[in-house]
Amino acid sequence: MANGGGTQQSGRILVVDDDPATRRMLASYFEEHDMPASAAAGRSELARQLQDEPSLVILDLRLGQDDGLDLLREIRSSSDVPVIITTGHRLDEIDRVVGLELGADDYVTKPFGLRELLARVRAVLRRHELGRLARAREPQRGGYKFGSWILERQNRRLLTTDGVEVTLTKGEYSLLVAFLEAPRRPLTREQLLQATRIHEDIFDRSIDVQVLRLRRKLETESSAPRVIQTERGIGYVFTLDVELF
Questions:
Q1: Which residues, in sequence order, are CB contacts of 68 under 8 Å at separation 6+?
Q2: pLDDT tens column, 21-42
Q3: Distance of CA 119 to the CA centre of its chain
């Protein structure tokens, strides 16, 4: 098993699980399929191995003393590395939804087949690479100005005009960009689902949750929204004028 010594390994998969047998099994399986792999049991090992920039993280949400959702928040605060979360059983739907909203790229439920997991890893890596290539081809734009806000594209920062930064999850950022690309135009939940690339198994009401969280960050009074308004029977509309820079 590769242990992530100090040089980055192309395609390295980082398995985060508190069960030693699971860590060994998954790491060995990936290496059998020409994917270097390393493993971490919890927060401290994860933080150390993230410094070596793995290509993808498989993160168990049930980690004993460490909370997997908290670790996902920490990963997303500093990295866009693809993350696949694993949950213990099919009743953990809330954790799966929250995990996706926090920026996970996909999920699998235990027990899962190794071939299925490998297929999902390859699919996520493929989407991530296609996204990277698409961003590289995009015309370089600074970002968007709207109301008293500025969204910088290059480093995905949301700032007030006074320079105060407001943290966005990956899902919130994608949702906001979808609105900013179509101001004053009603967008359906399906359009917003596609724009934010939420896993297709997640029901469309998860968009409502993301809109609610985004409103809390943009609105003066989120219970009486003026920036993102509900279009009854359709979806949502972004009401402010948007200027590109």
A1: 16, 59, 60, 61, 62, 85, 95, 99
A2: 999 999 999 999 999 999 999 8
A3: 19
pLDDT in tens, 62-73: 887 888 899 998
Nearest to 170 by CA among 133, 125, 210, 132: 210
Mean pLDDT of the chain: 84
Residue 192 has pLDDT above 50, yes or no: yes
13-16 vs 37-40, strand pairing mode: parallel
CA–CA distances in Å: residue 7 to residues 10, 12, 50: 10, 11, 12
The rounded Cα 163 to chain-centroid distance in angstroms is 25
CA proximity to 211, closest of 198, 229, 226:
229
As a whole number of angstroms, the distance between CA 51 and CA 119 comes to 26
Tell me the C-alpha to C-alpha distance, in Å, between residue 115 and each of 112, 143, 235.
9, 41, 38
Tokens of 222: 């989120």
The CA distances from residue 29 to 25, 113, 172, 181, 190, in Å, are 6, 11, 34, 42, 36
